[in-house]
Amino acid sequence: MQMLLEMLAGLIAMLAAAALSQFGVDLHAPRNADREIQRVQDCSKDKPAAAITVAAPSDC
Length: 60
Description:
Layout: H1 2-21
């Protein structure tokens, strides 16, 4: 009995989705990103306290 009710609910959901799609309503529309990521620069006037130099290996 429960399986019959679940099948009926699924059938009704599919019919509703088909009817709404005729009017351009998409139930599974992709979501747009809520946040915008922006890169920022470090605006400090001071230079770094230490600099690290790395030499490339000679076998490159």
